[in-house]
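FAQ: What does a ligand-bound record look like?

Like this one, built around protoporphyrin IX containing FE:
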Amino acid sequence: MSDKSRAGSAAATARKPRKRRTPSALLKFVMALSGVLLLLYVVLHMIGNLKIFLGGQAIDEYAAYLRMLLEPLVPYGGVLWIVRIVLLVSVIAHIWAATVLTLRARKARPIKYAGGSHQVKGSYAARTMRWGGVIIALFVVYHLMDLTAGWLNPNGVHLAVNDNVHADFAPGRWYVTLFYVIAVVALGFHVRHGIFSGMQTLGWSNNNRERTIKAVATVVAVVLTLGFVSVPLAVTFGVV
Ligand code: HEM
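The answer part, i.e. the structure of the complex:
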C-alpha cells in the first residue's frame, strides 16, 4: 500500500462516527423506574382481583368502574388507555435496558464460570431474573389474549370478568390454573430480586440496611404472589 492510500484509509477510520454508548447508570435508572411503575400496576391489579371474594357482581362492577374513572373529564375508558400506554412503554424500556446491560456484562466477562457450587451468586440471580422475565413476558402475552381480549377464553365476553375467570379456571382446565401459578411464582422471585437490586443500584442499600431491604422485598413478593394465586386457585377449588 502506498503512503498516500495508507494515509487515506487512516483518515477514513478516524472519520468513522463512533457509536454513542448509553451510559450504564442511565440504563440502570431506566430499569429501576420502569420496574417501579410495573410493580405499582401489579400491586393495584392484585388488590383489584381480590374483589372476586366479595362476589361476582363486585368484580364486574369494579371492571366497569375502571372504564369510568375521571369521567367526564376524560372520555370513557380513557384512564385505562393511559395506563396501558404507560405499561407498554415501561415494559419495552425494562426489556431494552435489561438486554443491553446483560450483553455488556457478557462482553466484559467472556470466559464462562466453571459452574457447580463455586458459581458466583450474582450470576445465579441474574440468570433467574432473565428466565423469570421471559416466563412473565410469555405469560402476559397469553393473559392479554385470554382475559383482556377474550380470544383464548372459553367465555370471552367483554366486561363479564367473573364469568370469564370462572370459565378460565374451571376444574377441567387445571393446566391453565397451573400455568398462572407458575407465572405468578416467577413474578414473585422477579419482584423480590428486583426490589433488592434496584435499591442497590439507587444507592439506598448498605451493610446495615441490607437485611431490612431483603425482608421488605420478601414480604412484598410473598404478599403479591399469594394475592394473585388465590384467585385462580379459589375458582378451581370452588371457593368462589
Ligand atoms: C394470577 C391471577 C390474575 C388474574 C385472575 C388476572 C385477571 C385479569 C383480568 C380479569 C383482566 C381483565 C380486566 C378487565 O378487562 O377489566 C386482566 C387484565 C390484565 N392483567 Fe391480569 N390477572 C392476573 C395476574 C396478572 C399478572 C401477574 C399480571 C402481570 C404480570 C397481569 C397483567 C395484566 C394486564 C397488563 C392486564 C390488561 C389490563 C388492561 O389493559 O385492561 N395480570 N387480568
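Follow-up question: can I read anything off the structure? Yes, for example: The pocket of protoporphyrin IX containing FE is lined by residues 42, 45, 49, 63, 66, 80, 84, 87, 136, 140, 143-144, 147-148, 161, 165, 180, 184, 187, 228, 231-232 (CB under 6 Å).
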